[in-house]
Please model this.
Amino acid sequence: HQVHAIIPYLGYMRRHGWDISGLEAAGKLSIVRVDPQDVMHIIKDEYGTIVDSITDTSASRVVIDSLSSIQMMIEGEYQRRQGVLRLLKWLRKSNCTALMIAESEQDPAKYSRHGIAEFLVDGVIVLYNLRRGKTRIRALEVLKMRGTKQTTNLVPYSLDNGIQLQPHQVIFGEIGGE
Model:
C-alpha cells in the first residue's frame, strides 16, 4: 500500500525524523487509509485489508485510528460488540502489538464512545488535556494494563521529543477543575 500525501500526519512524522518514504520502500511501514463508507466492507471481509497489510510488512505493531470510527459504522450493540471481538481475536492471532485509538468524553465515565473496548482489551491508557487556570497540562493515566503493576497517578507528559513522561511532577486538583 502506498503512503498517500492526503494523510496530514505524514508531515508530523517527518518533522520527528521519520523517513516515511524509506520505511515504506523497505517494507517496514504500511499506512492504509480507509474511507468511512468502506469500513463495513472491511468488517464483512474479516478485516482483509488490515490482514494483508500486516502480512505484507511482517508487522509486529499495528495502530488503528480510530476504533471509534469502526464502531460508529456498526449498527446495534450486539453487532458492535461482535465486530470489535472479531477484530481483537484476529489481532491476537497475528501476534502484533495493537494500539487502537478511541474517542471518549472529556471527563469520561466510559473510556470509549460505546463503552465496549475498555473491557475487551488488555490495556487502556487515557490521555488528558487538563485545564489549570489559563493553561493546559497534558497527562496520561494507565487505567488498565493486564499482567503488570502500574501507578494509579495521573502522569504529566510532553510531546517535544517523542513522548516525555514526568512521573515525579504532581498534578493537583480534579480533572477539568481550576
